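CO-FOLDING WORKSHEET

Operator: S.A.
Ligand of interest: glutathione
Run index: 221
Mode: holo prediction, single chain
Checklist:
[x] sequence pasted
[x] SMILES validated
[ ] output reviewed
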Amino acid sequence: MLRLHGFAVSNYFNMARMALLEKGAEFEVVETYPSQDASFLARSPLGKVPCLETGNGFLSETSVMLEYIEEVLPSPAFLPRDAFRRAQVRQAIRMMELYVELPARRLYPGVFFGGSNTEATVAEVEPVLRKAMSGLRGVLRCSPFVMGEELTLADFFAAFTFSLAGTVARKVYDWDLVAEVPGLDEALARINERDSARAIHADMKAAMAAFQAHIARQRGA
Ligand SMILES: N[C@@H](CCC(=O)N[C@@H](CS)C(=O)NCC(=O)O)C(=O)O
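OUTPUT RECEIVED:
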């Protein structure tokens, strides 16, 4: 049985969990925080979560896990049959990861972790996010799902990328980043209404206090 290691507040963990839930997969969650302990590095080479335990060993990197889940559990399909449209889904995921999630993540310390962001970081990240959203305007279709008619892996990625990046942009730049792509807000609302996403959001809320205590412990350490 697949076992997903991670914690309920992690956006990457939640992307993978949503894919497993939407597949109707049998899987277990192993609550795990990132760690540089040798025992965890043996499972996740950079000590990050999520990692996915399979019958053949562990996998890291969420986009890779999404692809693996799609291959081993092909039904229902979350990648289009057509090769070009499949590549477009992967393009959207790559763009969201490299140009939205990762730059926005640089501001997580000041927005989510009770730390601060330097003026330099705040100044550097904004143009990257603006360029990304402008590019995504031409890539995302958002009717009804982010890549058009079918629910795809890009929806799972989008749901948990924009939830946090949107909060970052609002708090740091007073900017509604999601509004840059017509229909994205509605598409995200549609995804977030699904049973899978509702369960994930409920668990995220319930896990928040434990996560904040974990962060506080780490900051004190
Ligand atoms: N590229 C990785 C990113 C995963 C990631 O950054 N996870 C965060 C939690 S949401 C983490 O483990 N952070 C700890 C660290 O970076 O050391 C993926 O796609 O899974």
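REVIEW:
The longest helix spans residues 195-220.
The pocket of glutathione is lined by residues 10-12, 34, 47-49, 61-63 (CB under 6 Å).
[x] output reviewed
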